[in-house]
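Document type: protein sequence-to-structure record

Subject area: structural biology

Format: plain text, a pair of labelled lines:
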Amino acid sequence: MKYKATTIKDIAKALNLSTSTVSRALRDSHEISAATKQTVLEYAAKLNFQPNPIALSLKERKSHSIGVIVAEIANSFFSQIINGIESVANEKGYTVIISQSHENFEKEVRTLQYLASRSIDGLLISVSSATNDLQHLKSMYQSGLPIVFFDRTVEEIQTHKVMVDNYQGAYNATLHLLEQGFRRIACVANSEHLSITKERVGGYMAALQQYKIEPDPTLIKYCFHGGMLLEEVELAVKELLAVKPRPTAIFATSDKLTTGCMRVLKKHKIAVPAAMALTGFSNSELIHLLHAPITVVQQPAYEMGQVATELLLQLIESKRPVKDFKTKMLQTKLVFPEK
């Protein structure tokens, strides 16, 4: 049997009232008597009646919903961000519609079009690793859709942005390896054009240069899909292992790349850290339960979600066009394995 939601017409018919009377009673209008309101509300509660959000959005010109696009919900970093987003949105009465790009540009475009068709009031997005063309976002933004970028931001669209200090986080991670005595340090990074990649590779290079080590281009490998495809990470690691002299440590620039490198090294029976040191970005609570606990750069993901949502709701609820945009920079933390 197909589910059929209760409507105002159903309530009106059952109570022998007009639909307009029921509608006003549900909205607590002063035009309706207290007795009629109570009758309508009690009957509506009995049927578990919920107002049609699409009808309400047409009436109020607001859907009280926001769209969120991330690369992958299963990624602990993004799941923690989503928890932060929902904590603020739900408190403010907004529904959150979450979608994944899976690091695919075409899927990101289709997802944005779908969310727009659902009349979302605003968008939170961390762009995919494959996103080079920003026309789909520029078009929506120019049409009046409030957008806030988090984590992976873009320079071409002037709006609020929330990120971590990627440069400093990568610098700290690489410096930690240098302080442990490693000098041939490789870098496995996300798609080359992403903002986070440029900043993290920049921090990696700066730490090397502080130790008077000239960065070696053959020790930097870019993974277009950011670790979503293990085969891509395996190729990067195998190429690094073939470099002469071989690197003695690897710095990975994202959660997926960090765990991906660990899996590949284990597959090739290269012990971590005895035969190859490894550090990288990771928010996974399981990272220290793996066969080789490692030092990682942890991001304040939950806080990032909260801050981004607060900024988006400010844009949505502002009575005047916002022209003063903020870039919020949050700090990372170097987390060492438990002894």
Summary: The CA atoms of residues 14 and 43 lie 9 Å apart.
